[in-house]
Amino acid sequence: MSSGGAGASGGAMSSGGASAAGGAGAAGSTEVSGSTGGDDSDRVLRRDEAVRAAVEQGLLGPGAPVVALLDVPGIRASATALRAAFDAVTAPDTPVLHAFAVKATPLVPVLRLLYEQGIGAEVASPGELALARAAGIPPAHTVLDSPAKTPAELREALASGIAVNADNPQELDRIDAIVRSAATGSPIGIRVNPQVGGGSIEALSTATATSKFGVALRDEGAREWIVGAYADRPWLTRLHTHTGSQGIPLSLMAQGVAETYALAEEINRRLGRRQVDTIDIGGGLPVNFGSDATAPTYAQYARLLAEVVPGLFDGRYGLVTEFGRSLLAKHGTVIARVEYAKSAGGRPVAVTHAGAQVAARTVYAPVTWPLRIAAYDAKGRPKAGPDVIQDVAGPACFAGDLLAEGRALPLLEQGDYAAALDTGAYYFAHHYAYNSLARPAIYGFAPAPEGGQHEVRFAVVREQQTLDEIVAESGGAQPSALTGL
Ligand SMILES: *Cc1c(COP(=O)(O)O)cnc(C)c1O
C-alpha cells in the first residue's frame, strides 16, 4: 500500500487517495467537499431523528436519563472530507497517513470505524495504544507521540514498528540505546516546537515560547543541535510538529508547518541527502461550536497549506496528519432528561442528568468552552416556543455544575430533554467521576437502510457503567484495607 516513494520510512502509508485500511471509503476521490462533516443540514436532520428514535426505542427515558449519540454517517463523511482535502493538494503517489488523535474520542468502535475509512491512530499513552490495537489498527498506521514515554513504552513501540516522535534530547538518548541493541522498523522523528506563538486558549497552545512540547526550535543552539542529531543518526527520517488545538488561527498552524518544512529542507541540504522524508503536521483544526456550520473545513486548511508551503506537497515528502476534534466533535450529542424544572431568584433552572461528568471543560471553563443546547420535548421532538432565559444544570453537587447559564431557549419543562451539541470529542468520552456518577451509554446511529424516512438504527458503542463497576473502581474489593493499618 505504500507508494515506495519519498516515505520509504513509513512502510504503510496510503498513497494517491487509496484507503489506508483497504476499507469502503470513497477511495481515490479527489473531489473536495466544502465541509468536513457531509452536508450540515443533513446532519441536523439525522440528529433530530436520532433523538426522537432514542426516546421511542427506550434508549432514553426515565430509566436511562442520559445517553450520548454518535452520528456514524457524519463521522464517515468527515473522514472522507479529510482524505479528499489532502488528495486534492498532494502530488500523485505522495504517501499520506491520516492518524486520528485517539485522545479526542478514545472509543474502540470509533477507532475501528475511522480505520475502515482509511484513518490510522495517533496515540499518546499505553492506554491509547491498547485501544488502537483493540480496534485492529496495525503498527504501520499508528504514531506514538506522548511527551513522557518510559523506556519500556519506547522499547515496545520500536519493537512493533510503530512510528515514534522523540520529544526531547533525553528521549532521543533512550531511543539511541534501543536502536543500538535491536533493529527496528519504526519510522523515527523529532518533535519540534516552532515557537510561532499561541492562540486564544492558552492551555491548548503547544507552540508558545515556553511550551512543554518538543524541541524549542528558536532557543539558542537548538537548530544546530537538531541538524547534528540527524547527521549522527541516519535512521532519523521524520520531523513532527503540532501547533495546538482549538483556538489556534489557521494562519498560525500553517506557519508552524512552514517552519518545520524549512527545517527539513535545511537538514537535507546540509546533510547532502534526502534524509528527512516525511513531515508530520499534527492536528488542531478548530471546530465551530457556535452553529451547525462546519468551519473551517479540511479543504480550506489544505489549500492554505498548499499556498504557504507548496514544497510540502510536491511529492518529495510523505505526510502524516493527526486531527482529532475536527473529525468527531460535530458528530456527538449528549442528551439528558429534565428531572426537575424549577425557578430560583426569578430564573428558570432545568435540572438535568448531564453536567460536569460529561462536559468537564464547559462546566469548569464556561467562557472558553460554551456549548450549544437544543431543547426537545418528552417525545424527543424539537421543542418550539418563545425563548426564555434559563439555566441548564447538571446532576452534580456543586453550584457551578451548569451546561449553560442564562441561555435563551424554549422553556425546558419536567420530562423534556436537553441536548449538548458538538460533544463528540473531548466530552462524553472523557468521563469525570464526580459524585460517582455513572458513565452514560454511548450509541452510534444511522438511518435504517431500507426503512422509511423516520427509521434509525442504533449500535452500542459502550454500555452504561454499572453500580458494581463503580464500586469495583472505588476500592470495593478491599473495604477493610485501611482499618487494619
Ligand atoms: C491533541 C493532539 C492532536 C489532536 O489535536 P486536535 O485539536 O484534536 O485535532 C494531534 N497531535 C498531538 C501531538 C496532540 O497532542
Structure in words:
The chain has 485 residues and is α/β, with parallel strands linked by helices. The protein has 2 domains: 18-26 and 73-326, TIM Barrel, CATH 3.20.20; 330-473, Lyase, Ornithine Decarboxylase, Chain A, domain 1 (Beta Barrel). The chain is built from 12 helices and 19 strands. It has helices at 40-56, 72-87, 108-116, 126-134, 151-160, 169-181, 222-232, 250-271, 298-308, 325-328, 360-364, 467-473, and strands spanning 14-15, 66-71, 95-101, 120-123, 142-144, 163-166, 188-193, 215-216, 236-240, 278-280, 318-321, 332-344, 347-352, 373-376, 387-393, 402-410, 417-420, 441-447, 456-462. The strands form 2 sheets. Strands 2, 12, 13, 14, 15, 16, 17, 18 and 19 form a 9-stranded mixed sheet that branches. An 8-stranded parallel β-barrel has the order 3-4-5-6-7-9-10-11, surrounded by 7 helices. Helix 8 crosses helix 9. The structure holds pyridoxal-5'-phosphate. Pyridoxal-5'-phosphate binds at residues 101, 103-104, 122, 145, 242, 245-246, 282-285, 322-326. Pyridoxal-5'-phosphate (PLP) is lined by residues 101, 103-104, 122, 145, 242, 245-246, 282-285, 322-326.
Question: Topology, pairings included?
Answer:
Blueprint (H helix, E strand, L loop, with lengths): L13 E2 L24 H17 L9 E6 H16 L7 E7 L6 H9 L3 E4 L2 H9 L7 E3 L6 H10 L2 E4 L2 H13 L6 E6 L21 E2 L5 H11 L3 E5 L9 H22 L6 E3 L17 H11 L9 E4 L3 H4 L3 E13 L2 E6 L7 H5 L8 E4 L10 E7 L8 E9 L6 E4 L20 E7 L8 E7 L4 H7 L12
Parallel strand pairs: 2-18, 3-4, 3-11, 4-5, 5-6, 6-7, 7-8, 7-9, 9-10, 10-11, 13-15
Antiparallel strand pairs: 1-3, 2-12, 12-13, 12-17, 14-17, 15-16, 18-19
Helix pairs in contact: 2-9, 5-6, 7-8, 8-9
This protein binds pyridoxal-5'-phosphate.
